[in-house]
Design brief:
The structure holds two protein chains of two kinds. Chain A has one domain. In chain A, 83% of the residues lie in helices and 0% in strands. In chain A, helix 6 crosses helix 11 and helix 8 packs parallel to helix 11. Chain A is globular. The mean pLDDT of chain A is 88. Chain B is built from nine helices and no strands. Chain B is mainly α. Chain B is 77% helix and 0% strand. The chains are: A mainly alpha, B mainly alpha. The interface between A and B is medium-sized, with 23 and 21 residues.
Chain lengths: 224, 253
């Protein structure tokens, strides 16, 4: 069995598990929609204000939804012991962990992209920034999953890791939030956003290459 | 290793042993305190009394003698934490792990001081306590990173495991340090650009610069003193069943 096959097997297994437990797909999505609905209720139905802060609202909600879904990344595998088996396998555990992260993103990150345009319309975001919003979500949410995986890996062995997880992960999400939110806002006023998109791409490449290692190291530490 | 003189290698080898470290710090501590007091005395005298007041900012610029060194320390201590954490992770040196975790609360305090004094300075200068400027925000994030490190260490019961977790987190957080450092150039908003590190022509006058550098050095010594004190306590706690700690305790009785 080659490494690539093992990598695909992990993704397939996690996707299958997610399909069997559909609530895991639905929960972050519902949370995302709910949080965004709360904003107009909280600040009043003022179209101009909502339109102005729409990029920020959508991105902060996506950030929170991604963070909320993180716990399911390693939790069940940790509880039933299959995580130990994955780490004990002869393949490099960082690659297998990357497979798990990708599957997790397909289940929890990708659906956000599908509902985001709908929510953007709710908030009265200009049509010209819709494409940029989708691009930033496409580039940004994998980074959220990759960085978040490090945090979960560090706290999965703890009984009450939830609070500490947000403290670990949210500060590291800040660069993504800044560049993505800024790009969507700029696009709304018709300005070029190449720089922000390029930075997001480089952040994605960096975290794709670097994040699996500390995640695997932290998992090994949490398991024993 | 062949590049490092033998005596230095031997020194570090001996330092890695807890009882030797404990005895050594007993001896150097008074000297460190003397140097710290002298540096702080001269630095504050030079900064608050000798240095002329600024032609634009009047006397309120003098807060830089606390603000700037604290901000430097907040970054410096994070780097120390990450590097010693990495050393602990790779070579399993117990003392390096203790350096990493003992640095965290000190670094968090310096970060808080930098933010607090900056805010005090910002009120008369910018007319507001807080601005969402890139540099201030990054410093705030640095504070959160420190708090995350402290929280994670507290949440894990097995302290050897906790040290490893903290080292991994600190190394991941190091990605944030360059963002903080270059944020001035990237976003370039309200916060003034760096004035000291322009090597060709510093835009700060020498009579103001010398006390600032003295204060920076004195903060380094303060860090060293606080770090050693914290390390000694942490060592005693971790090694409470070791022979040398028991001997120390019975000595005191």
């Amino acid at each position: 069995m080659s490494l690539f096959y093992a990598f695909l097997a992990i993704i397939r297994r996690d996707l299958l598990l997610a399909v069997r437990r559909r609530s895991e797909i639905a929960n972050p999505l519902l949370f995302f929609v709910l949080v965004i609905t709360l904003f107009p209720l909280g600040i009043g139905a003022q179209p101009h204000l909502l339109q102005a802060i729409a990029p920020g609202i959508i991105w902060v909600s996506a950030l929170l939804a991604a963070m909320l879904s993180l716990d399911s990344l390693f939790r069940s595998d940790f509880d039933d012991g299959s995580l130990e088996q994955i780490l004990l396998s002869p393949y490099p555990s960082s690659i297998l962990v990357l497979g798990k992260i990708i599957a997790h993103w397909l289940v929890t990150g990708l659906p956000l992209l599908i509902v985001a345009p709908l929510l953007a319309v709710f908030l009265g975001m200009p049509m010209q920034s819709m494409g940029v919003l989708l691009i930033t979500l496409l580039l940004g949410t994998p980074v959220l999953s990759l960085i978040g995986a490090i945090g979960v890996a560090l706290t999965v062995g703890l009984r009450r890791g939830g609070m500490i997880l947000s403290l670990l992960v949210l500060p590291l999400y800040v660069p993504v939030l800044i560049f993505a939110g800024n790009a969507v806002e700029m696009a709304g006023s018709g300005l070029p956003v190449d720089a922000q998109i390029n930075i997001l791409i480089s952040i994605l490449c960096l975290s794709l290459v670097l994040a699996p290692w500390p995640t695997a190291a932290a998992l090994k530490m949490s398991v024993n | 290793m062949f590049l490092i003189p033998n005596a230095v290698v031997r020194f570090f080898h001996r330092m890695a042993s807890p009882p030797h470290f404990y005895a050594f710090t007993d001896k150097v501590m008074p000297w460190l305190i003397i140097v710290f007091v002298l540096l702080t005395g001269f630095g504050l005298y030079g900064g608050l009394y000798l240095a002329p007041s600024d032609y634009q900012q009047g006397d309120s610029y003098r807060i830089i003698y606390i603000h700037v060194p604290s901000a430097w320390m907040s970054l410096f201590i994070y780097m120390v934490m990450a590097i010693s954490g990495a050393i602990g992770l790779v070579w399993r040196i117990k003392l390096a792990e203790i350096v990493a975790i003992s640095s965290a609360p000190i670094g968090a305090s310096f970060t808080f001081i930098a933010l607090f004094t900056g805010s005090l300075w910002g009120k008369p200068m910018w007319g507001t306590w807080w601005v969402w400027d890139a540099r201030l925000t990054s410093e705030l994030i640095l504070l959160f990173l420190y708090l995350g490190v402290i929280g994670l260490y507290g949440a894990i019961d097995d302290k050897r495991v906790a040290s490893k977790a903290v080292a991994i987190l600190a190394l991941v957080g190091v990605v944030n340090i360059p963002i903080i450092h270059y944020s001035v150039e990237w976003w370039n908003t309200l916060h003034q650009g760096p004035t000291v590190t322009k090597m060709d022509k510093p835009s700060i006058h020498v009579s103001m610069l010398i006390p600032l550098l003295l204060m920076a050095l004195s903060f380094k010594f303060y860090y060293l003193i606080a770090l050693i004190q914290r390390m000694r306590i942490e060592l005693l706690q971790r090694e409470r069943n070791a022979q040398w700690v028991k001997a120390k305790v019975s000595e005191l009785r």
